[in-house]
Amino acid sequence: MDHLPGGNFAAHRFDTNGPTGLTPEVKISGPALALTAMITVQLGVALSTNLFAAVTPAGSVWLRVTVAAVVLLAVTRPSLRAIPRGTLLSLLALGVLTAVMMLTFIESVARIPLGTAGAIQFAGPLMLAAVKGRRLTALIWPLLALVGVLGLTQPWAGALNVIGIGFALASAAGWAGYIVLTQHVGNRLTGLQGLALSLAISSVVIAPFGASAAIAGVTPLVALEAVGLAVLIPLLPFSLELVALRRMTVPAFGTLMAVEPAVATVIGLVVLAQSPNPLQLLGVALVVVAGIGAQRVRADIREAASGNDRSRMPATESSQLPAPS
Questions:
Q1: Is the Cβ–Cβ distance between 38 and 260 less than 8 Å?
Q2: Which neighbouring-strand residues pair with 25?
Q3: Three-state SS string across 77-113, please?
Q4: Among residues 270, 241, 267, 224, which one has the least CA distance to residue 44?
Q5: Domain boundaries, the chain
Q6: pLDDT tens, residue by residue, 138-158
Q7: Mind listing the pLDDT tens digit for each residue in 39-96?
């Protein structure tokens, strides 16, 4: 497995170079970072709805992403010349996918409840896990999630918002690519350089859809709100996810992210007064269970493959290998 050392939510290390040789350094684990990122993402999206009337949904996204990009570029000052060409291409793709993910998700939230949008969006990482599972039985979990989505949207009730669902599905595709490329870029660039550059690219991609409305509707108060929201999303959560993916495997990250539809539903209820009915709550639960199940299948496959590799080694060599984490 490719975890970094440490699995507790508040693991402590000691710096032997300190004056006493016992200088504590708190290292927050990947799961804690990912959970915090989930909460800030959904809270930021919910609060962004206050800007829709002034700058449109697309305009609110462009303001948040542009502010975040400017701040990170000023702080990190990345050098393009020092980045290999292959990594630059990955950065470009990451920026485009991030723009697709954020723009389409906010457009879906403008049309359907936050919890429903979050559950449909989760189809992206769920399908990613199922594909990587490489077993027909892994398809059980996307089918279970589909049942959950049907419970959330209730198309038989005659109030199906096809455009909103379409935007959420587009965001799902963007999220799947974002997960893969974020880890790829994060493993090749130090600090937050990759995030700064990818958000700058995202700002350019979103500009044709939201820049004119944002500029026309911005006021000092709207600008101040946009700065605050840029911290909630994307500055804080994207930074936390980037670090979390350096400390977790993609399956472990995806398993934890399975609870995000539930987080979205709770925040939608508390912040936006969007009350789900019992069938919709059941739908959210099915999506969460499907997400966890899909990731666990993939983890079991990897562990079994690791065990098979060891069984073919001489006993003296195999016994020296560490147990899978």
A1: yes
A2: 13
A3: CCCHHHCCHHHHHHHHHHHHHHHHHHHHHHHHHCCCC
A4: 267
A5: 10-15+24-306
A6: 778 888 888 988 888 888 777
A7: 999 999 999 999 999 999 999 999 999 999 999 999 989 888 888 888 899 999 999 9
